[in-house]
Amino acid sequence: MATIKDVSKETGLSIGTVSRVFNNRGYISKETREKVEAAVKKLNYQPNAIARSLSKSSSNIIGVILPHISHPFFSDLLSYIENATREKGYSLMVFVTKGDEEAELAMINRCRENKVCGLILCSGRFATKKIESNEFPVVAIERNPEGASFAIECNNRQGGRLAAQELIDKGCKNLVSLAGIKGRKMPADDRSTGFEEVCRENSVNFTCLTYPPELYDRLDYTAFIDKVLTERPNTDGIFASSDIIASQVIQVAASKGLKVPEDLKVIGFDDTLIATYTTPQLTTIHQPIKEMAELAVSTLIGLKDEKSATGCTIMNVSLVKRGTT
Amino acid sequence: MATIKDVSKETGLSIGTVSRVFNNRGYISKETREKVEAAVKKLNYQPNAIARSLSKSSSNIIGVILPHISHPFFSDLLSYIENATREKGYSLMVFVTKGDEEAELAMINRCRENKVCGLILCSGRFATKKIESNEFPVVAIERNPEGASFAIECNNRQGGRLAAQELIDKGCKNLVSLAGIKGRKMPADDRSTGFEEVCRENSVNFTCLTYPPELYDRLDYTAFIDKVLTERPNTDGIFASSDIIASQVIQVAASKGLKVPEDLKVIGFDDTLIATYTTPQLTTIHQPIKEMAELAVSTLIGLKDEKSATGCTIMNVSLVKRGTT
């Protein structure tokens, strides 16, 4: 394989000059640039990303830490992050915590070792405070932003409001919200806040419930939902804070002989593929997952040279009506 | 940040000796090792993965190319690959083609640039022949193995056989198999072969259909399924080659007033989370996704020093009975 030395020999230019062309550093004449490009083509020279990274303070690698990828919100998010990363000429290193805080620390170290140029943090458990002293910028998606350079959230409160309004408009009188993990503070908690506001404004009965963290880690909520419906038999509308939970509400309802949407109306959150796989298809709150992913990548790349910038972007959500309301 | 020079100074050992300890190369006395370990701890020295890679012929990065990650089979597979990779001390670089062959070529180049120590190829479109001359080993999962060092498949034919047998055992007389992409040869084609064998052995009416490639790329099969059920109104059992397709069969059946499993029995393939989100839950063929992922990673790491090894492992599948049969 051709090396930078071969390109230097072929062009008659010094290695330093060839390197300046590769890294687009300092003044380079058009003639010099063309000479190098011709030699690169002729020799089929492939610049070595590792060697190139070593001469810079970081690589062209972006790291991403996620709590799950079997969860469709995160697999969609990852899919869009990968696309945006690659389109901008970066490569993506992926880590999945499955809720393990110890693992998360090791992952951040692994990012450091690989000299990532930035980290996208979507994991919900770890206190970002611990990485404040990082040498790379951190963009957080849908999690507490302390310590992150930048945070991106959807408008969770607006989502809760839209869900409550739709259920009330469709005639529900006794509402339940299943949103938020007991004992973990997350941006998604605002979904309940918005839901509650609209219920109060319309004087409609409601209960806001949070679920134990192990359900989120296992992604199995059926026993919990069964208990809720058994204890509150007059419930006629449920707002679930993810499409996964909502799909399980549909199943539990079926097992109890309740028809959706006739006896029980259901709204999810996320608008992932899951929402179109259930029968009936799920009415849900659409998160702009693609836009959030693209903003995270472009913000991270923009922050590379400006590590002190901080901020938070809140993106609008919308109601997608399907068959469960 | 502490460098290898600082460790050398602290211990009084040469840089070469310290490097030998870091890379576990040649004879190192217990005393020397302990001295270095103490200095590393004291100085909070963090080895630079990039610098370390440069001194070796490859990095500790494994690349993986997938066709989709929103598809639950691939998100589950990726989740297990990430876990196995990290447990063995490697980092994972992820690329998603969404069926774009040009992008796939660029991704393989990106792997080359980042000096990956191996590549796991799960993408279904690209002719692996084109990377035969690679400088890193390639393990293929569920795709044509030409050019790959090693291929891992599940026993697709056995899966098709189990599906047909279950439908026949449950009394179906007119079966349809929806498996395989028109014009693309894939290991999954053997699912139809096995299905057909059992139908013939039992003298049961059957039709094996393939679907146009754009349905796979978009993951929306509903119009196609609707046409199949309209043209074959006496169909009482459907074998779909993924849980996604099967979930859409349930929806189309509902829209046509057909009850599942009373009027129409349905079997999927993969046994991903989707199978538990449908109503009723899906009877499906379980692929050992975790085992396939772990085998891919360990095979790849084992192949690093033995690039000429080739082979194929076929893993057993099983029937998981749920509510659709």
Summarize the structure.
The structure is a homodimer of 325-residue chains. Chain A is α/β, with parallel strands linked by helices.
Short key terms for the protein model shown above:
homodimer, 325 residues, alpha/beta, 434 Repressor (Amino-terminal Domain), Rossmann fold, 6-stranded parallel sheet, 6-stranded mixed sheet, 13 helices, elongated, Lambda_DNA-bd_dom_sf (chains A, B), DNA-binding (chains A, B), HTH_LacI (chains A, B), repressor (chains A, B)
Low-confidence stretches of chain A: none
**Coarse morphology of chain A:** elongated
Which sequence of strands runs across the widest sheet of chain A?
2-1-3-4-5-11
Distinct helical segment count of chain A: 13
Largest sheet of chain A: 6 strands, parallel
Name of the CATH class of the largest domain in chain A: Alpha Beta
Q: Provide the helix percentage of chain A.
A: 40-55%
Mean pLDDT of chain A: 85
Helix/strand-derived class of chain A? alpha/beta
Instruction: Provide the number of structural domains of chain A.
Output: 3
